[in-house]
Amino acid sequence: MPRRTPVHTGPRLPLVLTSDGDLLDDLLRLAAAGGTEVEVVADPAAARSRWAAAPLVLVGTDQAQPCLRARLPRRPRMVLVGRSGLGDPGWELAELIGAEHVAILPAAEPWLVDRFAEGTPGATATGTGRVVAVIGGRGGAGASVLAGGLAVTATRGGLRTLLVDADPLGGGLDLVLGWEQLEGLRWPALTEADGRVDAPALVRALPSRGDLVVLSWDRGALFSLPGEAMAATLDAGRRGRDLVVVDLPRQLDDSAVIALQAADQVYVVVPAELRAVAAATRVVAATLPHCTELSVVVRGPAPGRLKAREVARALHLPLAGTLRPEPGLGRGLERGEAPASTGKGPLASLCQRLLTELDDNASAAGVA
Ligand SMILES: Nc1ncnc2c1ncn2[C@@H]1O[C@H](COP(=O)(O)OP(=O)(O)O)[C@@H](O)[C@H]1O
Ligand SMILES: [Mg+2]
Description:
Bound molecules: adenosine-5'-diphosphate, magnesium ion
Shape: elongated
Order of helices and strands: EHEHEHEHEHEHEHHHEEHEHEHEHEHH
Helix content: 40-55%
Oligomer: single chain
Number of domains: 2
Number of strands: 13
Strand order of the largest sheet: 8-9-7-10-6-11-12-13
Number of helices: 15
Distance between the termini: 26 Å
């Protein structure tokens, strides 16, 4: 019998959002027929932290209006489900909340069983790529450099990696890698083609070298990234890559929230300075409600001798690691050398350790 299963870092289950007991009974029976357990939540507030990461979301017609009011971001593979004979099936609401289909039971039962079967954890359709996100505690903290370093290090270690630039004001993550001349799609071109992003097609279309693929901004006009584009990209990344690294903006938009929700681990980078800690306090307060695993990376130098563990304690977060000053790194970046590309130095070592820990956590949760 499928159960209500709280999942934080383990395999992702389809999410059912309804407070209609009869509808829930039907959906649990269909999920069992499709061979999967599901997570059940009764209202949008409870759904929020699972929303982006679930491989499939079923919203009962009773919760369509609350979903709309709660402004849950649009996402792929979301289905509005109702039972026949209960009046308006909600086509209009489906459109408004961005549902891909409206399934009316009992007619849609076989179709739903198939969807559950596709969404079973471990099936290749759901993807097993891990997602990490990096955010700066203040401007110029070193978040983009850490994101680049993690992606370069993961690729050197044999992981098929997607590096996603989610910061429209960051200047372009392709520049951090020295990849600005590389051919391939950037966000503006990708988001013109709305909707589902197919993993192999995405990977082929983006600038890449070896096993590292980058989705970055170009130097054109500024625009905000649609949440759907981010959701589709993360989905494609999880299916087609071993690791997705997202470089987040400090001002959270819909896309950033989706990435935070999808992330297995989020790092906030904070320089070891009092004012940086004050700024980071705000960033952490805005970030924490959207993610399950947030830890801090403290970057030196510490002009006032502030200790890394004091920074972590002030932010009430676990300390993921520290970065000693690495003056050669700034020079290398100016010359177009990707961070951590030599595999040596404080940044490369930290990235190696963080990736190993991520791997260990995944093994412990049984999803490696
Ligand atoms: N680990 C590091 N060691 C030395 N300098 C760094 C490091 N990380 C960042 N920097 C310097 O700080 C600048 C800003 O870093 P960046 O990653 O772009 O910050 P953020 O994305 O947090 O705004 C870089 O251009 C580089 O000169
Ligand atoms: Mg940045």
